[in-house]
Amino acid sequence: MTTVRECVLLAFAFCRIGLYTCYRRIFYGPPPPPRPGFSAICIGITGAGKSKVLAVLCSEKDEIIPTQGFSIKDVPFENAILHVKEIGGSEMLRKYWKKYYRGVQGIIFVVDSSCDEDTLKIASEEFCKAIMDPDLAGLPLLVLLNSIDQSKARSIEEITDAFNINELCSERKWSIRNCYACDADSASFLALILAS
Ligand SMILES: Nc1nc2c(ncn2[C@@H]2O[C@H](COP(=O)(O)OP(=O)(O)OP(=O)(O)O)[C@@H](O)[C@H]2O)c(=O)[nH]1
Ligand SMILES: [Mg+2]
């Protein structure tokens, strides 16, 4: 008796699933095709604003604290999902950056455009080191200038020169953009070229 009752309930459950699927198809159309996923690395020295930028892109409102080790975020765009690995930029952690390079498909380098000269020099040295790494050779690059709301913020041209990007990146697709706590538009550059 129990078995018959279970069979009826099971059949009823399948009918419900079937009816719900038909309802969705009729009123909402077929499900959207899955978006391709790409992996990117997000680097830059501590305080550059990497976590903040990624939190904005993921619509997160959590308190921002310095990244210990690394953190992974899935950033959704219309045409792709970027699986971004942010690595902490403190002096102690920078020597481990290269351990995370293998297998990534794009690079995001975040710079605090309002930092002092010494910090900018360190940032440009770290940038050069990262960009020259064989594991990152030829990968698309997005440089994000953060903290442009600050009075001492440098321009895109100043950072491009300070980092010698034109010369260092002649063999790859790259873009440098302003981002005040970042907008999805500037970061979607990377998703766009990876998906193309
Ligand atoms: N004024 C201003 N402050 C910002 C901006 N972006 C980030 N900050 C602040 O800068 C501080 C450092 O930002 P984080 O996102 O933690 O920097 P990070 O690059 O992730 O640093 P690490 O994880 O230590 O490598 C935080 O207090 C942020 O709120 C910005 O565009 N403008
Ligand atoms: Mg961080």
TrEMBL record:
| Entry-linked InterPro entries | ARL15, P-loop_NTPase, Small_GTPase_ARF/SAR
Lineage top rank: taxon: Eukaryota
Name recorded for this polypeptide: ADP-ribosylation factor-like protein 15
Among the GO molecular function terms of this UniProt record, one is:
GTPase activity
* Membrane-traversing stretches: none
Does this entry carry the keyword GTP-binding? yes
Which key words are in the record? Answer: GTP-binding, Magnesium, Metal-binding, Nucleotide-binding
- Answer whether the UniProt record assigns the keyword Metal-binding to this protein: yes
The organism of origin for this protein: Trichoplax adhaerens (Trichoplax reptans)
Residues annotated as binding GTP: 44-51, 89, 146-149
UniProt-listed Gene3D superfamilies: P-loop containing nucleotide triphosphate hydrolases
Residues reported in the UniProt entry to bind Mg(2+): 51, 67
Q: Name one Pfam family in it.
A: Arf
